[in-house]
Design brief:
The structure is a homodimer of 132-residue chains. The first copy, chain A, is 29% helix and 23% strand. In chain A, strand 2 and strand 3 form a beta hairpin. Chain A has 132 residues and is α+β, with helices and mostly antiparallel strands. Chain A is globular. Chain A has a single domain, classed as HIT family, subunit A (2-Layer Sandwich). Strand 4 of chain A pairs antiparallel with strand 4 of chain B, so a sheet runs across the interface.
């Protein structure tokens, strides 16, 4: 089975890396360090549909993503979410938050339009993932 | 170490059960079937602070909670979130959603004030958890 990203994820985020289970994307919103993990399991729409070893691996990749984001000085809190109300393909958000960010203390999802990265800042985020 | 719920969780939700890792609460909002899993690890504020076996167990308890909610006919989608911007004690939301619910397709967190359960509906939700 060929893995393909949902067009909405393709449009809203940049490819960073393929880890063991997940494709790792950087959400194109410079206001938040925000990774999206997409398990390369085409049929999955819910975390709980994954087989148990994949669920464990997903948790480990969430942890890896969270630890990368925590190396950034501005990250005071992690927000992790699997929603999928708009994009059915299973994907997990791992977002670095801090008091005073635009959506704080509410969730980032649906809060306000993204502010795209400039090239240098995007390269920095992609480099963070690729070095980790 | 004695485990104690954060007062905000104590106020907003009802005790349903203690599973192997987590205290399981029913959020007191009759508009959504909504469970909250609180790992009984007093010091934890982030999923990624848990030891690896606890992370795997948390994922299994998220799965158990999600499968219970999916037995309800109104649940079309699960939303899973670990935020903690307001309540630092680590807790994971597992929420049953459907198109047309009050916050759909946005997240439930921060959307609008809860509508408390009446006694019969609350008993039904607590029974779902306790039977599962």
């Amino acid at each position: 089975m060929t893995f393909a990203l949902h067009p909405r994820l393709e449009a809203d985020a940049h490819f960073a890396a393929d880890w063991q289970l997940c494709r790792v994307l950087v959400m194109n919103d410079a206001r938040y360090p925000w990774l999206v993990l997409v398990p390369r399991r085409d049929e999955a729409t819910e975390v709980i549909q994954l087989e148990a070893p994949d669920r464990t691996q997903l948790m480990e990749e969430i942890t890896r993503a969270g630890r990368l984001l925590q190396t950034l000085p501005e990250v005071a809190k992690l927000n992790i979410g699997a929603l999928g109300n708009l994009v059915p393909q299973l994907h997990v958000h791992v977002v670095g938050r801090h008091p005073g960010d635009p959506a704080w203390p509410g969730p980032v999802w649906g809060h306000s339009p993204a502010v795209p990265y400039d090239a240098d800042a995007l390269a920095g985020m992609l480099g963070l993932v690729r070095a980790g």
